[in-house]
Design goal:
Structural class: alpha+beta
CATH class of the largest domain: Alpha Beta
Helix content: 25-40%
Number of helices: 6
CATH superfamily of the largest domain: K homology (KH) domain
Number of strands: 9
Number of domains: 3
Order of helices and strands: EHEEHEEHHEHEHEE
Largest sheet: 3 strands, antiparallel
Shape: flat
């Protein structure tokens, strides 16, 4: 069994928050409540609930099972590992002889799998837990490549004071570009286009104008 604690002042809201965070139903958990008064019994009462549930119902484990079923339907052999699991992010590592098929051209298959898993597991949830999927350190290597591309573009923009438009990218790739150049002097970034696949425009800034926030 896994037990998580949540603290607040309204029991109903607290239970709803706990279930939404854990992506579980009330009939899947056991809830114990503890109420504490303020100093010397005065003031607002603080409620702590302990939510217990089976290990198999942990969000990360459910993500593994969903990915396993998905790859089996694609007739792909793979081993799946849970690397990180918290309220904000779950990291899944895949090991497979069919890694090239899973990644796809320019990572499109991997991105599609990750999108399907995120939507399926976070459906109707107010608190979104991101599921990141990697295979053979592809995302790490891709991230290093994107950072180099971003810094090269920034250098060119500073030298020429002319904008550069990068090739269309998915949300994961664009975020890396934006974050890499956020602290770079004399450059600003902005996404252009519609839908999930957009380009990024890197422009020169002399620092006198307000920095334009990247729109996604």
């Amino acid at each position: 069994m896994i037990t998580r604690e949540f603290t607040g002042k309204d029991e109903k809201e607290l239970i709803a928050k706990a279930l939404d965070t854990l992506k579980l139903r009330e009939d899947q958990v056991k809830i114990e409540k503890e109420t504490k008064g303020g100093f010397l019994g005065l003031g607002a009462k603080e409620i702590t609930i302990k939510v217990s549930f089976d290990d198999d119902l942990q969000f990360g484990n459910r993500a593994i099972m969903y990915i396993k079923d998905l790859l089996e339907k694609m007739d792909i052999e793979a081993k799946i590992y849970l690397v990180e699991d918290n309220d904000e992010r779950v990291l899944i590592e895949i090991e497979s002889p069919d890694s090239a098929m899973i990644i796809g051209r320019q990572g499109k298959n991997l991105e599609a799998i990750q999108t399907i898993v995120n939507v399926a597991l976070n459906r109707d949830a107010e608190v979104w837990t991101k599921v990141a999927i990697d295979i053979g350190n592809y995302r790490y290597r891709k991230e290093r490549q994107l950072k180099r591309t971003a810094l090269q573009a920034a250098g060119h923009v500073r030298r020429t004071k002319r904008s550069v438009v990068l090739d269309p990218m998915n949300p994961f790739e664009r975020r890396i570009i934006h974050m890499t150049l956020k602290a770079e002097p004399n450059v600003i970034t902005e996404s252009e286009g519609e839908g999930l696949i957009k380009s990024i425009k890197v422009s020169y800034s002399d620092g006198k104008e307000p920095v334009k926030e990247a729109q996604e």
